[in-house]
User: What shape does this take?
Amino acid sequence: MWFLSQLLKAVGSGRRLTFVSDHQHGLLDALSVVFPNAHHAYCLNHLKRNLINKLVGFRTNYKLTLMKILVKCAYAPTVVTFQHYMEKLRRIAGNGRVDSMLDGLKNDKWANLFFRGKRYGAMSFNVAESYNNWIGGARELPITCMVNMIRVQIMTQLSNRRAKSKRWTTKLYPVMEKKLVDSLKLANSWDVIVASDIALEVHSFISFYVDISRQTCSCHEWQLNDFPCCYAVYALRSSGKDVYDFIDPFFHVDCFRELQKESVYPVLSSERFDFDGAGSSIIKPSITKK
Assistant: This one.
């Protein structure tokens, strides 16, 4: 509760946030109080580990099979597909412990199809694990040295990212620009039938319905990831629309630069701090019971 209260002061309450976390009950209770309007999703990797823990003593291949089906449930784009894989998971598991785990999960907390917030395709909190590894060298240091080392790492990282983004010439940051280009290459042999200015039908091996005004596609990928799927990209280009106008600002280079624009500034070493010479610079021990 204390940590989230401090986080609220830092990020404010003016926008709708999405939290991705494990299934820790203290966190679940605190989130609903401090961030009542935020969306909350469970980390897929955490759910996979929970599933493995329910299958102690079973063969490794059996566990891997169930994990793959769980992932397909999480990424399922339609209700029919989700129900198909859920039934398959329960049938193959044949395990009351697995059933109890699935029954205890709300679908809108872990399945992409039912989630009402924006995840941009992020199904786990790997970014937090990556950060923990990144600061690994600092974590064993005394607290002041640890904070200073992390400060220097972040200061350097932000500076490097600003310099790197200045060299980008595309509208989207490189990974997403490549995804857009790949979508156009994939769609070269497809046909588009125009029903109206906003409704189009794209024919590949099967047909998909794209609604430009609602920014939806019957494959559901556009709605789930807030990035046009290959069918939507091809439909937009065929209708003469600028594809970039239909891509969430989050993926644009300008947004990336805006996120990195703040700097972490140098701090004098503690030996050079100016003290007033009064007792305020003396840190007394806390009052505790023996």
Q: What stands out?
A: Residues 143-166 form the longest helix (24 residues). The two ends are 28 Å apart (CA to CA). Residues 18 and 79 are 22 Å apart (CA to CA). The chain has a mean pLDDT of 87.
